[in-house]
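Ticket #270: bound-state structure for phosphoenolpyruvate.
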Amino acid sequence: MSLLSQSDELQDTIIIDGREIFKKKKCCIMAGPCAVESRDQILYTAEKLADLGIEVFRAGAFKPRTNPYAFQGAREEGLKWLEEVRDTYGMLIITETSDSTNFEAVEEVADIVQIGAKAMYDHALLRKAGRTKKPILIKRHFGATVEEMFKMADYALLEGNRQVMFCERGIRTFEISSRFTLDLCGAAVIKKETKAPLILDPSHSMGYAFGVPDIAKACVAFGCEGILIEVHHNPKEAQCDKEQALDIEQFSKLYQEIIAIGATIGKQVV
Ligand code: PEP
Ligand code: MN
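RESOLUTION: The complex was predicted; output attached.
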């Protein structure tokens, strides 16, 4: 079967506001907390990351939590704080839509619309994402094959969008000492089979902060166009994915290291 996901029609360079953000010679570090919790948290973290030179700020205002009693994100109000980040620090925003009910609100604020791993199977959401003019980042479900991800992405591509990126964020295996297992073999298949930028996610795959820097370094050396990494100003207090968040100091050290690694393989880390 020939899939649009694997066709020449996809864009290998994603341009936002006239800037080439994702391309073969670059690795774009998208950093920020898992969830939008409060205005202070968002603006403080964004300021620190902007100072380091980070161009794309990540944070989810709508969190698709497995536990319905867990914090679900600051929702519509949180999107306003993300707009403030863009206006104040000139950063681009990647934020996730958890289902069709919040797609339009997210689309309006996001520079890149994130479709989370669990939403990868949401047909209606993918169809909506296919009609936006914004780039979309599709995270591979932890139980999906690469081919299943490509097929689901075609629901979006069939609606016209050609600015799609694929993210490997860990799959479920028998190993339970890490949260998931980063499937770099699958990532190699993504790299071979599609022109679309490849994004890797060391935070969700590892699930524990102690392993995140080493994996992030391996991801940059692997050669991807972007990395999603969770950073919290006070991980102990984080309301979502606290175990895997790096603090600002840990991230800052890692960022310098991955800039150097990128240079060795001809990738400009931004
Ligand atoms: C996230 O990026 O915070 C997230 C929810 O990731 P995933 O969809 O991969 O679980
Ligand atoms: Mn998270």
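RESOLUTION NOTES: The pocket of manganese (II) ion (ligand 2) is lined by residues 34, 204, 230, 240-241 (CB under 6 Å).
TICKET STATUS: resolved
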